[in-house]
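Write out the bound-state structure for protoporphyrin IX containing FE.
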Amino acid sequence: MEISSLFLIYTIIFLSSCFVLLSYHPYMKKRRKPQEQSAKLPPGSMGWPYVGETLQLYSQDPNRFFASKQKRYGEIFKTHILGCPCVMLASPEAARFVLVTHANLFKPTYPRSKEKLIGPSALFFHQGDYHYRLRKLVQASLSPETIRKLVPDIESTAISALHSWASPPNNDQVINVFHEMKKFSFNIGILAVFGHLDSNYRDQLKENYTIVDKGYNSFPNSIPGTAYSKALLARKRINEIISELISKWKEQRLIENDLLGHMLNYKDEKGQTLSDDQIADNIIGVLFAAQDTTASVLTWILKYLHDDQKLLEAVKTEQMAIYEANEQGKKPLTWTQTRNMPITYRVIQESLRMASIISFTFREAVEDVVYKGYLIPKGWKVMPLFRNIHHNPELFPAPHSFDPSRFEVPPKPHTFMPFGNGVHSCPGNELAKLNMLIFIHHLVTKFRWELVGNEKGIQYSPFPVPLHGLPARFWRN
Ligand code: HEM
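---
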């Protein structure tokens, strides 16, 4: 038989088996409501069988992939990545539909391997009643009323970090800003979760957490010695440390206002308390959500301020006025002062927009959903693309230039979502902003810094950060 006829036969067998498989797929079998029957799938390409467009996504800067798709297909398009059919949404209305107004039709979705590492009871894997209750606890421990008491501790953590980076005379130590910001953010996370924690426990948690963090972005498998399996072991040890802390707390009947205190005091209407595992999963979840996010944004802020000396001067002038009012920094910063730093605050907002470190989020449709005439089939992933929205020139003119003054006028509602939107939006946003304001105050009033090397670029760790974590040198003024 000729090669071409063989090829034809194979193609027919392949296509017919695809057809048979598809006809068994729940998406093809299910009877649809009339509105769903007339709806069509969004435009877009599903790529190659099995791999879909995964290679296109990961062989370049993912944001280029999203931007080129949006240019070609518009604000809603389908694709297929990491084995999942997806609908991507690049308009504020569509993001609001998924995250706020129709949030009940979309559930959070994470790979099983990641869920295992953080802990399946962490709030961001859930929706409904359990999520609602836990979220209330987390929100209470991170509310402005609670975190205002943390100002002195955040200040001393920021000052001691900066002092440790600043080179003594004749010593040219180069700091990996992102790595150091991670340490700073971790310490603040510990403060929010445990209050003043014995340094021995803090070091044990840090050591094991670092191993979990390394494993989180590695290939999941249970082969001994791999980063993922080491991470699972470290995660177990963290559970033991937290259980020990919980026993101590209970023994001493401590009533604290931190997250651990809120979770230990919790009882539902039937008198049911949270289990140690539920508490541990949520502690790890919060530490996880707090660390890399805050560290990445702070790293970008240092870069943006360094690259715009005029802006840096304006921030310095604002902060020096506070420093002078506090008798050259002899008096501590007050909560009220942190609420009155308009220029610095706009720098933070613009950094959040420009870097859009959480470029998108994932949900999964729990039933067939029709949005603007397009069908989102049950089980498909849905991805609101925050970065595309933040970089849309119709919403943020000249989106690629760093211009904090654009925030002198508040952005249109639901167009600026660095902390997400709706039921899963970030409960730590006030704490994150407070950390950044306090850090910047001490940085610009007492220190100066220079970037090392002039390589430009972005690395994904997994959030976007300047290349090599932004190597820099620091000096005390
Ligand atoms: C600049 C820093 C931060 C950024 C940009 C950020 C961003 C976000 C975003 C976009 C979400 C929503 C994700 C989604 O809808 O799927 C989120 C959720 C969350 N964030 Fe943050 N976050 C930051 C800092 C923090 C901090 C400091 C904490 C805690 C101390 C925290 C705790 C959480 C938690 C627990 C959730 C899950 C909420 C839920 O599922 O109900 N985040 N964050």
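---
The CA atoms of residues 86 and 246 lie 41 Å apart.
The chain is about 55% helix and 10% strand.
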